[in-house]
């Protein structure tokens, strides 16, 4: 899949869709008016833009997600590690923990994730 990025406003819009999908375009217009103060035309413009990028689909006035929120943010995380740390996850963790200490619960959670990866 091509690299997909979202601006701040697009992220807020995407969060609305992910929280409510599938939903009708009329429901989406109402939600965007209520939560973002948008007019119908703005909602349709952003929906078309994100549909063209392959994130959402507007089929017969029903909006669905083509990729989940979790998948999208996983792709973004991979891009940050690749672009900023040469693809090295250990380098990313070292940089992250240089100024941000992990508590015992977080350390145990990371150990659990690593152990699960070892098992396949």
Strand order of the largest sheet: 1-3-2
**Fold-level CATH name of the largest domain:** Arc Repressor Mutant, subunit A
Shape: elongated
Low-confidence stretches: none
What share of residues is helical?
Answer: 55-70%
CATH superfamily of the largest domain: Winged helix-like DNA-binding domain superfamily/Winged helix DNA-binding domain
The top-level CATH class of the largest domain is Mainly Alpha
- Class inferred from helices and paired strands: mainly alpha
Radius of gyration: 18 Å
Report the mean per-residue pLDDT as an integer. 92
SS summary, helix count: 6
Topology readout:
Blueprint: H1 8-20, E1 23-24, H2 25-36, H3 40-52, E2 56-59, E3 62-65, H4 69-85, H5 89-99, H6 104-119
Antiparallel strand pairs: 1-3, 2-3
Helix pairs in contact: 1-2
Describe the structure.
With about 120 residues, this protein is mainly alpha-helical. The protein folds into two domains: about 10-65, Arc Repressor Mutant, subunit A (Orthogonal Bundle), CATH 1.10.10; about 70-120, Penicillinase repressor fold (Orthogonal Bundle). The chain has six helices and three strands, in the order H-E-H-H-E-E-H-H-H. It has helices spanning about 10-20, 25-35, 40-50, 70-85, 90-100, 105-120, and strands at about 25, 55-60, 60-65. A three-stranded antiparallel sheet has the order 1-3-2. A hairpin with a 2-residue loop joins strand 2 (about 55-60) and strand 3 (about 60-65). Helix 1 packs across helix 2. The protein is elongated and about 45 Å long. The model has no long low-confidence stretch (mean pLDDT about 90).
């Amino acid at each position: 899949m091509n690299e997909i990025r979202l601006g701040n406003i697009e992220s807020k819009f995407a969060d609305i869709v992910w929280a409510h999908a599938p939903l009708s375009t009329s429901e989406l217009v109402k939600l965007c008016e209520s939560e973002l103060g948008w007019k119908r035309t703005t909602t349709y413009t952003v929906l078309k833009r994100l549909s063209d990028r392959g994130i959402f689909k507007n089929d017969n006035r029903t909006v669905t997600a083509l990729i989940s929120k979790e998948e999208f943010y996983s792709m973004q995380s991979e891009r940050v590690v690749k672009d900023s740390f040469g693809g090295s996850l250990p380098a990313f963790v070292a940089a992250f923990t240089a100024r941000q200490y992990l508590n015992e619960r977080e350390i145990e959670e990371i150990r659990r994730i690593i152990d699960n990866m070892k098992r396949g």
